[in-house]
Specification:
Length: 374
């Protein structure tokens, strides 16, 4: 087999597919790409058994057809070092030869028939399909994935809930200490279905469907498939009952704090350098026009204190938050100004952009920590 292809196009597609490959897989064959040539289309496939990605590239001057397995890491590293130009790829007699303007590189391949194929589960039920803009998928994952649980005591909470409504999409995550709900009504899937996507597939989705254009999504009871003209991605789903995120979000947080996000983030990071590593507690004293932040670690004899201007609809409130968790939330919120809706020192805070994008709603909830007096 032989074909010509722009090196940048080849590299971009291969570097996206390699994200699904597990470098420590017990199956050596899965450290390879499966390259399939048919007519003037090259398909680059990668898998870790549970997840699989295929990239589709148009090539020129192709000869022959078939499938071969080539070392994924070696191919990506080579393509990364080749300047943007047309390259010739020749696959013959067990050797892959890549020719470029200043030279050539040769390495071995094995027959594609040895590459394991994903078996379809006959008990997955009827599929449900809809289309959604790739940008909405990316934003939904960007805003929520950081809040998914990392401990496996409830595996269902380690993923992102895709709660699809007929007239909008809702993305949600929680680890019991923080919760994020992102709602986007700038799409109309036309179906109602809820599935939980594991963290690794979410990271892959975020990278390969980040641009413009529609993505076709197909859910069964056990798997999900995402497709557009350039990529197709299949993954297994997390099984179980996701918590009712709407019940957790308080409705009576009437004390509104408006503050500059970047200024607050910088202060939280600096004050956090002196925080107790056991609890990560930072205390906040909030008054109508000022926020004071304090931390200390008696064991290390460290303490820090900062203050900044704000706008607060209450009179005085003392509340404590975990510095690492608060830093995560402030780092993800997309606007310069943010609003924090509070009730009292024992109830969660609701962090929101100063102004949501049209047709969207983003809410981040953070549980407080017991802090006593300021």
């Amino acid at each position: 087999m032989k074909f010509n292809v722009p090196s940048k196009t080849f590299y971009t597609s291969a570097s996206a597919v390699i994200k699904v490959i597990n470098p420590k897989s017990p199956m050596t064959i899965l450290a390879n790409f499966l390259l399939t040539l048919k007519d003037n289309e090259l398909i680059i496939s990668g898998s870790d058994i549970e997840n699989s990605v295929s990239a589709h590239i148009e090539v020129k001057e192709s000869e022959g057809s078939g499938s071969v397995c080539v070392d994924a890491k070696r191919l990506v590293e080579l393509l990364k070092e080749i300047p943007d130009q047309g390259i010739e790829v020749n696959l013959e007699d067990g050797k892959a030869t890549i020719k470029y303007s200043s030279g050539a590189c040769e390495f071995t391949y094995i027959d594609g028939v040895e590459y394991p194929q994903t078996k379809k589960d006959e008990n997955e039920g009827e599929p449900v399909s809809f289309t959604v803009p790739g940008e909405i998928l990316r934003k939904g994952i960007d805003y929520t994935l950081f809040a998914a649980a990392t401990e496996d005591y409830r595996p269902i909470m380690m993923g992102v809930l895709f709660d699809v409504k007929e007239d909008r999409m809702v993305f949600a995550t929680t680890d019991t200490r923080k919760l994020v709900k992102y709602e986007n009504a700038n799409c109309a899937p036309g179906v109602a279905v809820s599935r939980v996507i594991p963290p690794k597939p979410c990271s892959v989705l975020r990278s390969i469907y980040s641009g413009e254009g529609e993505v076709k999504v197909t859910f069964t009871s056990k798997s999900a498939t995402f497709e557009n003209d350039s990529f197709s991605f299949n993954c297994r789903l997390l099984q179980g009952s996701f918590p009712d995120y709407n019940r957790v979000i308080p409705r009576n947080n009437n004390l509104l704090l408006t503050v500059d996000r970047q200024q607050l983030l910088s202060s939280v990071r600096r004050v956090g350098l002196c925080v107790s590593q056991d609890y990560g507690l930072e205390k906040f004293l909030i008054t109508p026009d000022r926020v004071e932040i304090k931390s200390q670690d008696p064991n290390l004899l460290t303490q820090a204190h900062e203050e900044m201007t704000c706008s607060f609809s209450g009179q005085r409130l003392v509340i404590g938050f975990s510095a690492p968790l608060l830093t995560e939330i402030l780092s993800v919120l997309p606007t310069d100004d943010i609003t924090i809706a509070l009730a009292d020192s024992g109830r969660p805070g609701l962090f929101q952009p100063g102004k949501d994008e049209e047709g969207t709603s983003l809410i981040m909830l953070l549980m407080p920590m017991a802090c006593g007096e300021f």
